[in-house]
Design brief:
Helix 4 packs parallel to helix 5. The chain is an alpha/beta fold. The protein contains six helices and nine strands; from the N terminus they run βββαβββαααβαβαβ. It has a domain of 141 residues: Rossmann fold (3-Layer(aba) Sandwich). The protein is 31% helix and 25% strand. The chain binds adenosine-5'-triphosphate. The site of adenosine-5'-triphosphate (ATP) has 12 residues, from helix 1. GO terms for molecular function: ATP binding; ATP hydrolysis activity.
Length: 210
């Protein structure tokens, strides 16, 4: 297991001169930090800052370090951060296997074998040639998770990743996602409105306020 860690130092984000959020956090390998708070409290803004997509209207100061590397001003694609959203957003023009191969580092050894193993891990052995449109919501969510992990991120941001799933599936996906993130030793930041998500993540919880 690799030991990735993410640090947020003296982050302060303001909008029109008003401070929206201030945060210091250290997320160790396999830790999941949950961020909660009312609508408009800045949860998506925090993720956008970390991922490198923050809109120009915001003034941000502070630093983010990933594995000791200052990523604060790096372009999004050089940060090594993986994202998991509410919608699985699989590429419709690629097969399930094509989706899984998409973000794999160029130097990855034996890609077909790794794709096959990944499909087995999520109970979708033999689904490699399928069109993603023919998968159920739960199956798409599992493929999106594996595509993320196969891209070998150094940290993961999750934005309400389970909110579109029904209760039963939600429970199942929580288990799968959190177990996989822990096993991969990835520091993760979870944004959610759901207390059960936070409890299941098992880490610290931060509440953003206005
Ligand atoms: N591009 C933008 N330009 C100006 N203001 C913005 C922009 N994006 C968001 N805001 C404002 O920034 C504040 C924080 O928004 P943000 O989306 O981070 O909240 P949130 O906690 O994620 O809310 P929700 O739970 O509803 O998703 C809000 O007041 C919002 O109106």
């Amino acid at each position: 297991m690799t030991h990735h860690h993410l640090e947020i130092d003296s982050l302060r984000i303001a909008l029109d001169g008003n401070v929206l959020l201030e945060l210091d956090a250290h997320i160790g390998p396999g830790e999941i930090l949950t961020v909660m708070g009312p609508s408009g409290s800045g949860k998506s803004t925090l993720l956008a800052w970390l991922a490198g997509f923050l809109a120009g209207d915001f003034e941000a100061s502070g630093h983010a370090h990933l594995d000791g590397r200052d990523i604060t001003h790096l372009p999004a694609e050089q940060r090594g951060i993986g994202l998991l959203f509410q919608d699985p957003l699989l590429f419709p023009h690629l097969s399930v296997a094509g989706n899984l191969r998409f973000g794999m580092p160029r130097a990855t050894r034996d890609k077909p074998r790794q794709v096959e193993t990944a499909l087995e891990q999520i109970g979708l052995a033999g689904f490699g040639d399928r069109d993603p449109a023919t998968l159920s919501g739960g199956q798409k969510a599992r493929v999106a998770l594996m595509r993320l992990l196969l891209s070998r991120p150094c940290a993961v941001l999750l934005d309400e990743p389970f909110s579109k799933l029904d209760t039963h599936l939600r429970q199942e996906m929580r288990q799968l996602v959190f177990t996989q993130l822990r096993q991969a030793g990835l520091p993760s930041l979870l944004v959610t409105h759901d207390r059960d998500d936070a409890a299941s993540a098992g880490g610290k919880v931060i509440e953003l306020t206005h």
